[in-house]
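Section 3.1 - Work completed
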Amino acid sequence: MTEASRYLSEYGDLSRLPLFSQHTNGSTPAVPKLGAPVTVPPTTGPDVDWSIVADLRARASEQLSQAVASDRNRLDKAAQQELGRSIVLDLIESAMADDVDAGRGAWSPGRQQATAQAVFDSLFRLGRLQPLVDNDDIENIVIVGHDNVLLELVDGTLIDGPPVADSDPELIDFLVFLASRSEVNARSFSEAQPRLHLRLDGGSRLAAAAWVTPRPSVVIRRHRLMQVTLDDLVAREMMTPTAASFLRAAVRARRSIVVAGAQGAGKTTLVRALCAEIDAMEAIGTFETEYELHLHELGRHKVVHAWEARPGSGERGPDGRQAGEFTLDEALVDSFRFNLSRQIVGEVRGKEIWAMIKAMESGTGSISTTHAADAVAAVRKLVTCAMEAGPHVTQGLATSKLAATVDLIVQLSMETRAVPGGAQRTRRVAEIIALAPGEREVGYATTHVFRADASGVAVPDVLPDEYRALAHYGFDLAAYLSTQAYGVQP
């Protein structure tokens, strides 16, 4: 009998550990419910040696890759995880035997389980980040170096988080591994490709940069408000009931809307709430660089065709494209054969604005987002994005296209203030402007339908005559007019 066998007979069979006895098939374990007291679990514990975890993960990854490559029938994700459990079990047994033989002592059952779970999480999930992503009270994870972690909770509170690696090189190594293992949309992350944008299991979005920053920088956005409506946002005091009725009517009347604001201001959440006002039987197409809206997973609409752009790889061809590249513009062109009722283009940061313009030109009532400091600045930002397509796009052309296609811009504000124990963020709808072709000098005209009052809340200001017709779609015109002259909060 080997030392490992004698140890296992004394401390028990590793296969009885929860990691191996419960077949999760990749499902996420139970997590705290919203509203429960916030408890941020440490990503490391006394029973976990992360240098051992890193070594076992590398060895397990190599064995798993070899096994998958040799299998004639490609293993699906569930089968790979089952195989991975077996590989991790063997490696843990070997590591325990080595420690016993070297006189370093036996592993406790707690150390067995903690190490096994850590290796499995590092191999198939997010390693030391996984407990943070699993906690429903945490919305955003901001990392500037392995030991400088900031957590934004769902109530807007900001608190410090635990280290997510033992060193910056270890953090970079894990990000490289994470990028390469994606089954759906694998991406390169290296000194030659120092930026990473990745969709994670469960709908989170990861953005990372290294080699071009002093320390590796990572932001994970966890979308907690998925099944959200405008009424939910009113209850959270993000907007007034009158503003909600206006936006609801605008969606139903097929007005094209751009939601603008700072990073993390809640733009995607608001778009999700606006899309909830679209009739369940309308066929929707979504176009995103990385899936964030997840309308195809929410079950609100019977038909949702979701397109995701794909970066190419390798050297660029004569046309300047990398092999395998798939753009939002190509997706939008294809979508016109899919009998869509709505085309929803996600975030606009650059040339993808032309996909947004094409969608809005179809007159179906499209919705998009962009980053801007205020609603009027959003127009200038979109003009700049359009001009990035090349010298053939003049400022006049870009301006005329936007003025003719965008109906409304909804501006979100985000305020961060110090509170005992950290900081807190408040998000609000601050402005809603109507955009139309206008003066020759600028090429467009803007009207503040709702303007921020002294407290930052969007209140009625000036209603263009053509928007009175939104009363037929549920706009509470009486409430708007009753507070319009006084500028009081409805």
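Second construct:
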Amino acid sequence: MKKRTLSLFPARVLTSRTMEKSVRRVLPRSMLGRSLLIVLIPLLVTQAISLELFYGNFLKVVSRRLSDSVTSDIVLSLNALEHLQKRSDKDWFVAQARDHLQLVETWRPGARLHRFGFNHITGPMDDDLAHALDAAIDYPFFVNWKNDPHTVKIAIQLPDGVLEVDAPRKRLDMGQIWLFVGWALSSSILLFVVASLFMRNQVRAIRRLARAAEQFGLGRDIGPIRPEGAQEVRKAAVAFNRMQDRIYRFVSQRTGVLAGVSHDLRTPLTRLRLSLAMMPRHGTVRGEDLKQDVDDMIGDVAEMEHMIGSYLAFARGEGAETPEDVEMQPFIEDVVTAARRAGARVEAVMVQPGLHVHMRPDAMKRTLSNLLDNARRHGGAIAVTAYAVQDGVCILVDDDGPGISPERRESAFRAFESGRGGGTGLGLTIARDIVRAHGGDMELESAPTGGLRVKISLP
């Protein structure tokens, strides 16, 4: 028995998960929709229960009593007409029934009914009247509810003719049911509208907080947000403002410290560069030429300066720059022109006309310049392409160098990861960090020319 229970347990879990997925497909995805659904379902259930209680108890009881009352008057009329023999007496009773019982009776001697029973309407009145007549009289009858909106026509087949009785509809029909239904629906709609307005204001505060967090994650300074909405939302907004202020202070302090360290390091490096530049390159020490040693030291100093600049750029980020709308064609052409002056061989530049991106131009220029410099050092010919996609802009930088193997592409983005060409290992890290700060992403692929393709996606 234990083994059978254990074997059925995964099936039960799978069934519950399937049901949960089915429910999730039906439920609204937004918080506003789910909140309104939470309000709407109990409201509808409550109104349905109220309708059922009224319709199933009170209305049926009253309808049976009204039907019994009309049936009793009809039975009284039949008994009186059977015992009264004179025509004048029958006419007198018919007049009395019309005045005091509100029943218009017509005697048709020799007539025959062709229909029996009743034609249905909405409500319990037709069934209750038919049951009451069937229980009280032994003659066949037909009840017509549809010919006249104000009168119910009852035809009773007697042995020698047909007795037609016109009963006022108000003696059988309770029109208050529609008033009750209208009141229930209107009150439900009114309460739902009020709840919708209230929930919309609450959700608006949450959406504003989410939008502020998204903009802050993209590196845009939106300032503190105004706390509003429910108490929990206000606390979240206050906590977000405090977090934003702490992060800004931390970044500012870190940037200031690293800027001072960079300045302190660049000063002795500059003195070393001047000293090396003034040293004689054609002398000898212990019979060895100094030219090669001096050139190597100058290269080391330049590499150290480049490393310090990269470290500072990586730690500082680009959050202080204000984003703006930039046209991609002249922007990429300027970056390519600067790369060509630095020795890059950019052979193809294809930019779709009319492309605009909301970005920080200096940060993105640093990213593209870094990628073109990597392509120059590791490859030969470079091609730059930019075109529009469904959700933004795609920029491709291709080279015909050795490329990067698929298993090493993700590790190439790690800080201080150096390739075969050397370097500080921060170029791709800084570039992807800037692109992701814009809400995009960067991927490494194989270029059609056999080298490396860097794919940048921007919103």
